[in-house]
Amino acid sequence: MEIIGKNFIGNQLSAMGNVQYKTFDPVKNQENKTVFTEATSAELEEAVALADAAFPIYRKMKGVQRAAFLKAIADEILNLGDDLIHTYRSETGLPEDRAEGERGRTIFQLQLFAKLIESEDWRNNISEEAMPERTPQPKPSLFKTHIPLGPIAVFGASNFPLAYSTAGGDTASALAAGCPVIVKSHPMHSGTGALVATAILKAAQKTGIPNGVFSNLNSKSHPLSHELVKHPNIKAVGFTGSFTGGSALQESVFKRAEPIPFFAEMSSINPIALLPGALKEKQDEIAKKITASIVLGTGQFCTQPGLLLVIADKKTDEFIETLGRLLSKMGQQGMIHPDLIENYLRQSEKLNGLKGSIVVQERKDKIQDKQVTPKLSQISGEQFLANPIYQEEVFGPFSLLVKCKNLEELEQVVKSLKGQLTGGIFAQPSDYELMDPLVTAFQSKVGRFLFNDVPTGVEVSAAMTHGGPFPSTTDSRFTAVGPASIYRWVRPITYQNWPEDLFDKLV
Length: 507
Prior knowledge:
Blueprint: E1 7-9, E2 12-14, E3 20-21, E4 24-25, E5 30-31, E6 36-37, H1 41-58, H2 63-79, H3 81-92, H4 96-117, E7 126-128, E8 142-148, E9 152-155, H5 169-177, E10 181-184, H6 190-207, E11 214-217, H7 223-230, E12 236-240, H8 243-254, E13 262-265, E14 271-274, H9 276-295, E15 307-311, H10 314-328, E16 333-334, H11 338-352, E17 358-362, E18 371-372, E19 375-380, H12 381-386, E20 398-404, H13 407-416, E21 420-426, H14 436-443, E22 446-451, E23 490-496, H15 503-506
Parallel strand pairs: 9-10, 9-12, 10-11, 12-13, 14-15, 14-21, 15-20, 19-20, 21-22
Antiparallel strand pairs: 1-2, 3-6, 4-5, 7-8, 8-23, 16-18, 17-19
Helix pairs in contact: 2-4, 2-6, 3-4, 3-6, 4-5, 7-8, 9-10, 13-14
């Protein structure tokens, strides 16, 4: 299938601008062929106007109709076949099994939300009968439900071209809620996004969805992104990316005349505490597990374990040696884009260059062009507590090991942490009596708390929390994964003294 380099403004293609760019193949080390045209302000305005006009119609469509739309999107993505997999790989350098796995997750998420909204139970409706005879004050009838916010802006993620992008979790949950979506496609994988956008619009046509419920905008520059989140008819934003990018967009949102919900996933180093009993009894097993997690996908996951916390003793030194040896055996890996490689090298070298940092593992053999290797560095608990720079995320296969003097210092390190998506403890029964203060410290810092496990791999289910205190996300009360993520795009409303036979008109 030919990849379209134009913008999808509702069901029309448009390329009014004169700024163009191409995506990059990190394996072939060359640009891909398709030329993409950046959206103009006029095209953005038209996309938002279409979404705003479609919203009153789309929000009133029955849940089963929107569910049919989501299931049709899943079908159309599957119908893209090998074209989607080939394009995904040419823009990321990721292997075929990763591409197929992410496609499967994207389809599963769409089907999950379709099933959720086939009944209206997800709205958590509460109905209370009137009590006109109550004294001293009669009670009115009350009906509480949830209604969609309006058009949503969604930003594609660099590291998940499918599951967190054009038809990913943010888009699927917003469409399920009854909100039109305008996607700002990520420039690293605009071809993948264009194919998926085509699938969404085919599904919309087949299921009778109003024009404007979905649009897809291309842009490699920042101004259009800020223009989108500042538009008065955009009512919420979903963002997955860097702390720098997310913070800048959040500032634009806060400066609006009408501030809106801004749901951003931005930065997390996912600390893991390794207690003495665990290292004494399960040292090799833990080292293998953590090594695999650090290098998985070249460390290009928001849940990569970037911080390891240990207590100084002989077994700890043995563990550090084992972990370094295992990492040294890991082969060279590519990253999704040269810019990410440059950032990985710059950030890891900055931390390694600080006084007192010990490089435990960093291969010195010749690195192939556009390849990286895992790095492990070590500092003391005192150093970590003294310098907040150690809490900066290094996006890639890097982990910082903090050797603390004792359990009390380890607890202080955890208490000093900023908010994280995940945190974990490796422990054995001999450690349990020591854990209470540490558990309490972790609970205030993380959205998902692991025990004897690594954070990579996020189950899409009702019990999952993919979120956490700032700066891992901008609102720790919500999850970006699982059916509960739909509640980011709705708000509660209570109707008083309305006849029941009018409820359908209200919801």
